[in-house]
Specification:
337 residues
């Protein structure tokens, strides 16, 4: 059974647009968590709720320590929640900076996207559950649901200076819920792209088959004993004509035959050398010429018949193209004055 790893997003542009929408929400969440860090207003809101009788008071920890009773601050009012929100704000910003260019390069594969979006969504759900946690530490002032700054209007604050802090805490919770929705949509789109359709399966199988054939062809070429480097090919016909622009190419050598550069042209299926054969030059001597004299210096011997070399030899007889080649006569001995 073959394994198919999905590499394409079916809704590529939708995922890209969701990342663009995610950017301002993430920046706002990071800003609000940065403002709330180092317990700027959490204790104030806790005390304000205690003054209104909505929840326990922060001094419950002192009474518990004085009476040697264990005490644990409710999660909704603990410093852990503030630090937790700040960490996930930085983490989500970093992930957005990384995944956006990777998605533009088509490397943010659907399984990876689904894993990242699902994980960060769970982290934000935990944050929202902490922010909407209950406070049952004081039996006389129980808080079974979310804190007062979420369920009530900020105008009910006992101290008017806490109204701004209440609005910030309410906004932080609202932004957290919005970003959970955005991550949930991205997670669903990524999961949907993880299931390969029959058309995509056929396309992947075709690509694998093509790569397999190319690899086998390359291995066959490398293992073949006739793998010989390329040699220069012959110049095209008409290269001697004025104004002709040659286009030299490379042709592969055939096993068992010498390179084309050494054999020259092919005539009647047999290679023909472009160089003058020694036997042909000597056989041409004396044809249609009965003179026994020689123009070569120091070779004037009347006992030996030495015919003259013809002044013109056509390249047709040498197996070359139809254009003629002329050879100058041999030099004569300079006369002394």
């Amino acid at each position: 059974m073959q394994f198919f790893f999905p590499r394409k997003h079916r809704h590529y542009k939708v995922t890209l647009y969701l990342m663009v929408v995610e950017f301002p929400i993430t920046v706002v969440f990071l800003t609000l968590t940065g403002i709330a860090s180092h317990n700027l207003y959490q204790t104030f809101l806790w005390q304000d709720g205690a003054d209104n009788g909505f929840n326990s008071a922060p001094d419950e920890a002192l009474y518990a320590a004085a009476n040697y009773r264990p005490y644990k601050a409710p999660m909704v009012w603990s410093s852990f929640l503030t630090n937790y929100n700040l960490v996930i704000g930085v983490l989500s910003t970093f992930l957005l900076i990384v995944k956006f260019p990777i998605h533009c390069m088509h490397l943010f594969f659907p399984p990876i996207a689904a894993t990242i979006h699902g994980a960060i969504m769970i982290i934000y759900i935990v944050s929202a559950s902490f922010q909407a946690g209950s406070d049952m530490s004081d039996p006389s002032h129980p808080q079974p649901g979310p804190p007062w700054y979420i369920t009530k209007s900020c105008s009910v604050a006992a101290h008017k200076s806490n109204i701004g802090y209440c609005e910030q805490a309410k906004s932080l919770f609202a932004v957290c819920v919005i970003i959970i929705v955005v991550y949930f949509v991205e997670f669903c789109i990524s999961v949907h792209s993880c299931f390969i359709t029959p058309e995509e399966r056929e396309e992947i199988l075709e690509q694998r088959e093509e790569k397999k054939i190319e690899k086998e062809f390359e291995e066959e070429i490398l293992k073949s004993p006739s793998m010989i480097p390329l040699t220069p090919g012959p110049p095209p016909p008409g290269h001697m004509n004025p104004g002709f622009m040659p286009h030299h190419g490379m042709v592969p050598r055939t096993p068992g035959f010498p390179p084309t550069a050494a054999t020259g042209y092919v005539k009647n299926g047999a290679p023909v050398s472009p160089f003058t054969r020694r036997t042909l030059g000597f056989n041409r001597l004396g044809d249609n010429n009965g003179s026994t004299s020689s123009d070569l210096p120091l070779r004037n011997n009347s006992n030996v018949s030495t015919p003259q070399m013809p002044a013109r030899i056509t390249t047709t007889e040498l197996g070359a193209p139809a254009s003629s080649m002329y050879f100058p006569p041999p030099p004569k001995k300079a006369s002394k004055n």
